[in-house]
Amino acid sequence: MTGTSDGGKRRATYRHGALKPALIEAGTALAREGGPEAIVLREAARRVGVAPNAAYTHFAGRGALVQAVATAALSEMAATMAAEQDALPEIPDPVRAARARFRSVGAGYLRFARAEPGLFRTAFATQEDVSAVAEPAAAGPTGRSGIELLGDALDELVATGTLPAERRPGAEFLAWATVHGLATLAIEGPLRMLDEPQIDHLSGLLLDLIDRGI
């Protein structure tokens, strides 16, 4: 990226495909500030320092940019979930280890929602089916999307004999819906009035409930 003078103002020029990721980054910043409603293609272009017409060469309209930011948000969420698993101490017992890894997936999901409410809301703003949340671009640094990390954890429970195989089909959707419900209530529902310790307590109780239920 280089700067050029134009009427006394500096304007960024992008080459070799650098403009598209820059626009997604600007859109992500807008989403952090105000959720999916705050993503405006012209504003993203302004923040990057290019004319709106340049942005339209990469995104046909606002919806396309929102979709790209949503995918980036899903990737960040998957990274947070994976980091939660990576932070677990070594647990020699395979059953306890599997249960801890399963629980940490939900803990990472809740942590991302609370830390990045704008991105969390954006992540699901345009996803019309489950395949959209598992596409390669939605994966974190492990190469696994959030729903795949949850599926892996459930498969590990089956492998250790903790979860009966006949109860495995569809289990990820039950666990996901439960955790997502608390996350949504805590960031934009009536539970947003609770303080951090109260939400921490509820999160722990919910994860305990899912662990026992599974």
From TrEMBL:
Domain of life: Bacteria
InterPro entries documented for this protein: Homeodomain-like_sf, HTH-type_TetR-like_transc_reg, HTH_TetR, MT1864/Rv1816-like_C, Tet_transcr_reg_TetR-rel_C_sf
SUPFAM superfamilies, A to Z: Homeodomain-like (SSF46689), Tetracyclin repressor-like, C-terminal domain (SSF48498)
Domain HTH tetR-type: 17-77
One Pfam family from the record: TetR_N
Spans traversing the lipid bilayer: none
Gene Ontology terms for molecular function: DNA-binding transcription factor activity; transcription cis-regulatory region binding
Keywords per UniProt: DNA-binding, Transcription, Transcription regulation
DNA-binding region, residue range(s): 40-59
PANTHER family, per database record: HTH-TYPE TRANSCRIPTIONAL REGULATOR BETI, HTH-TYPE TRANSCRIPTIONAL REGULATOR RUTR
UniProt name for this protein: TetR family transcriptional regulator
Provenance organism: Nocardia fluminea
